Batch of 2 targets.
Target 1
Amino acid sequence: MSYFRENIQATSGYIPGEQPKNPDIIKLNTNENPYPPSAKSVEALHSYVIDNLRKYPEPVSQPVKEAAAKVLGVDTQEVLVGNGSDDILTVIFRSFAGEQDTIGWLNPSYSLYPILAEIQGANQRFVELDENFELPTDLAEQAKGCSLFLITNPNAPTTNSFCKEKIREFCKSFEGIVVIDEAYGDFAETNCLELYKEFPNVIVTRTFSKSYSLAGIRVGMAFANKELTAGMHKVKDSYNVNALSQTMAAAALLDVDYFEETINKIKATRARTEAELTKLGFKVNPSQTNFVFAIPPIDAAEYFQALNDRNIIIRYFKGGRTGKYVRITIGTDEEMDKFFAATKEILT
Ligand SMILES: Cc1ncc(COP(=O)(O)O)c(C=O)c1O
């Protein structure tokens, strides 16, 4: 006998990527940014008046909203700030889907979605991407009846961006809420931020965990029209983002030069990684993210393990369509050099 609701009893819960204690490990497994956070954001943290920690933080993270308004050209009323974009996703699932509803997403994509749907006790619909991991031509048909549908763009773990026109068409015809999860949007050539202004049913989500090197402070944002953000504010925890995180996130957003410098470095290393792996016989999906998704020339599980034995950790999702692939986060050039050397050694 269990005290839990049946669906909580049944769910496995989300299994996060490993966070090893050994500092010598090269960690290419959770799509973190290899570069430090903006010096201006660190300075803002140091200037924070510690005595203020006696008080609750700003309840709606107004400083982050104001920074987003300046940098991204959004209205502060169109922003919801969360304790990471995972928190934002939780707020969205709780806001728009109950036990009678169906929540849909593309497959493969972010493995947290099914867990959040299980917690809600909602029905789940997996819409398979086509053989090139592109949107199926009958997406609208397949998503029909869902109250909430998630498009991860660019997609994880497959690394590709979907055609914006196709996403736009879908948003126009879909009757429920469309979430465009742009956790990796800053690494892509284009993004879909504008779509929340075009459609009353669109929410775009972003995070500070990847492009801003701030996974540890847990801040994410959602952009939607002010009716949707007002409703979601009723669902979020009263003080969902702590004061120190708000301070760092706002300063990081405003430090546009550093943001661009880091993104460009990662893109350059990404291009190098794609070329290097292709030379070594990998089949690499062209990436729009800060990681690559590739089929190694040997068994993917064995390759993953062989790297692990050499203190390099990447990610392997066994089974299904992902079992042939490995996912490798882009590290610094020095880290990637060690990763290439280890890969060569494993392959010979
Ligand atoms: C597609 C996608 N969305 C959202 C997240 C959550 O990011 P965070 O909660 O760190 O903001 C991740 C994290 O890896 C992700 O891959």
Target 2
Amino acid sequence: MHDAIAPERLSRVYTALAHRYDLQHGLLTAHSDERGRRLVVEQAVRPGDKVLDAGAGTGSTSLLAAERVGASGHVTLFDFSDGMLDVARQRMQARGLAGRVDFMSGDMLALPFSDGMFDTVLSTYSICPLFDQVAGALEFYRVLKPGGRLGVAHSVSPEGRFMRRLADALEGAAWRYPGITMGCRPGSVLPALERAGARVLFERRLGVPIFPFLVFVAEKPV
Ligand SMILES: C[S@@+](CC[C@H](N)C(=O)[O-])C[C@H]1O[C@@H](n2cnc3c(N)ncnc32)[C@H](O)[C@@H]1O
């Protein structure tokens, strides 16, 4: 497993690729990324929810969430790359959803919110590049209300020894180019969330065999 890319450098990497991010991420995941986002939003977001999209990037998941929460709901897009958030802002305006959202920059590992502020927290492909993935997932859980839902899609290791070795070899070669890997590393955060008390409502593996990801929704008990 490679070391995570330092946050300051990672934020510059994402800002530099903001305008081609959607195309690149879609191609690398054979467009299964969008299926993951749709599933997360369908399973985790309810009309009227106050939602945090952590690591919102160019806003693909936030767009779906803003449509689903309706006029009485709200979505906060949080990211440390202003370049990614600028693209998200343009997309929200173009879709007429700017009135249901706000944008904040900062580090997901230290969210500037008090405990229990959100009905739903979403993280699609944003745990993968974190320096400490488990700390990030627990930080999302902290800001969730009792009864609230955490909806996540993140990279996991491929199943089977052959696929794992192939993925390692490809990642080994690509890791020198952060603009290609986007700092993404497979991980496992669900056991830590369950130890913190989260109840799993939904769990499914998606993606291409060599770069699979896990989609899950977990509830914070009342
Ligand atoms: C792979 S992109 C995912 C974007 C989006 N959620 C999606 O579904 O396409 C990861 C995003 O997480 C952001 N990110 C990574 N580490 C972060 C951190 N520590 N704090 C805030 N944002 C971070 C990056 O800037 C990037 O926009």
